[in-house]
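Input chain follows. Return structure tokens only.
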Amino acid sequence: MKRKKPLLDQPTPELVEKYVLQFQNSERYYVSDQAIIKLFSHFPENSHLEDILLKLSVINDLYSTNIYATFKMAKHIQRLKIDPELRKRSTAIVNKIAAFPITGKTINFYSFATKYCNWHDQNGYPIYDYFVERIIVAYRKRDQFAAFRKVDLMDYARYKNVLEQFRLFYDLQQFTFKRLDKFLWLYGKEKFPKKGSTKHSSGRGKPHR
């Protein structure tokens, strides 16, 4: 039996603020965010392997991004010399980080890559994950706020553009990408819960591979 499509509220400023406040009032979510902010403010650069490994490991744990070869991923990020790209808000660097070569193949850790870049520049790099994808695709089907296919969201430049169109279409320009992300994630989590998940699980979705 097919699951019934959830009814979606109009994404007004009031609705966004409601879920942003809900996020900030959650000790688990808020404290996790503050811990990451503190860590990245102490280690903003990505030239030293130990700094990358520390930041990567914390994101991997708090966001459940399922990177099993953290040291190799840290080396991969170090080789990419990402700091100049982050400073100019390059979208291409996200897909470069995501394309992780290991054991003769490339695994696409796209969700992780968006999160790693986001914590270096919260308003320059919106986060991609399962719940955000589900909710923006649902709004596209309902309101046609932008023309895109689901696969297009795996190209980070396209994904960021879709979120910009979402913000414009619903007159939400007063919200930064970070605040918008909190709304999209919590609302998507509420409307499209994963089987076996609970309201209190804190993971931000598994990476697409």
